[in-house]
Amino acid sequence: MKPMLIGGEWVTTSHGIENINPSDIHDIVDVYAQAGRAETQQAIAAAAAAAPKWALSGPQERHDILHRAGDEILARKQELGELLAREEGKVLPEAIGEVARAGQIFLFFAAEALRQRGDVVASVRPGVGVEVTREPVGVVGIIAPWNFPIAIPAWKIAPALCYGNTVVFKPAELVPGSAWALADILHRAGVPAGVFNMVVGPGSVVGQTMLDDPRIDAISFTGSQATGARVASASLPFLRKIQLEMGGKNPLVVLDDADLDNAVFCAVNGAFFSTGQRCTASSRLIVTEAIHDRFVSAVADRLAALRIGHAMNAETDIGPVVDATQLAQNQDYIAIARSQGAHLRAGGDLVRRETEGYFLAPALLTETVPDMRINREEVFGPVASVIRVRDYEEALSVANDTEFGLSAGICTTSLKYASDFKRKAQVGMVMVNVPTAGVDYHVPFGGRKSSSYGAREQGSYAAEFFTIVKTAYTAAY
Ligand code: NAD
Measured from the CB, is residue 207 less than 6 Å from ligand 1? Predict the structure, then answer.
């Protein structure tokens, strides 16, 4: 059984969580020690005890630790990618890409640790000087989802440590393997005892204990809207700093003047790759009339050619859904859409392979309208719907007609429409002729409306969440 990391010690318990391979449910990746309330509180106490010293640690120490971690992640990307593909089900090249991204993020924040920023300005009062500096927030609770088992933890943990915070990290219980590997790497990279702690366990126990503890000064959360709302309401009494990244119902607009091949690439990649289990997945394909039929038939042809199967097979394009609950949810949404009048143009059926896994053929639903549940609620699987619209104006209005606002894309060769869409799409990230999913690691990530709350993640914008600004006035006597 793999232990948890508390106060610089590897700690085990009598209960274990099995990590099951969704491509082959008889393959148990490993068993991980499951924390309860007591272990979670110990981890919080360790992070609180380590916070004052780490807050005063120098940029060189933080840089060196983050750099060592980043280097090791990159050096082991094949092996860690295999672990990730095995526990989460995304295909191996995507998994290796995610691991590489995690490594790059650590290297980015290693460098950020050396880029100490601040302002020295003149006071409006003669003889007084003003300095504006940033300080760590304190103990940061990090609660992660299962769909990016190493990249999302990396893009929260690396800036937290970079800016001098201590961490209690709770990975999603479905994917403790990558999280454990990351904890092991950080431990060996020289993170001082208590500065980084990892506890594995259910959200209702480990996560809730974190939410209820006043010693946690800030929480960076990624996951569903329902859990995000809990994080917010539990944090309000403490006036705790929070950062929430939640769901999406991301539109991809395809206009008559789009390059058809590229539009099909953007739709298929954005909606179905990583088994559609990306918060930035294009789940609504909003298509103008003159290109609609050609686009739908080209997407359906492309889907028919995709190979669904074991995430570790070299020929697989789309791996399994992550677990039985998610698979049932995907199937439910397909059935609901059909009952409301949608036409299932491609996929949607279970696929049998040599191993027993949660394989679902990517589903394309057509003849849908904005009010259907399939166009309002996040499915979080390989399911996309097509909405036919008259023109650009209607496409923009349908694209924005959602409570979510994470990512939006447009495929067009018109500079006029591309520029207008970039300005008017009510989202945090907007894409022109590239898929709605797939972002860089050195620039801000996040959304608006019900998709996100709080400061942006990633890039130098991460400092907003992981630091507190201090303004100091000095009169020299
Ligand atoms: P989830 O909300 O079920 O779980 C997320 C995390 O919260 C897990 O670690 C879980 O154990 C924990 N949790 C559950 N109950 C809790 C509680 N009471 N207190 C504290 N923590 C608790 O989400 P999920 O199913 O793991 O992930 C899928 C969701 O994540 C989708 O909605 C997806 O859109 C979203 N997501 C968003 C982004 C983004 O950046 N916007 C990125 C990836 C995934």
Answer: yes
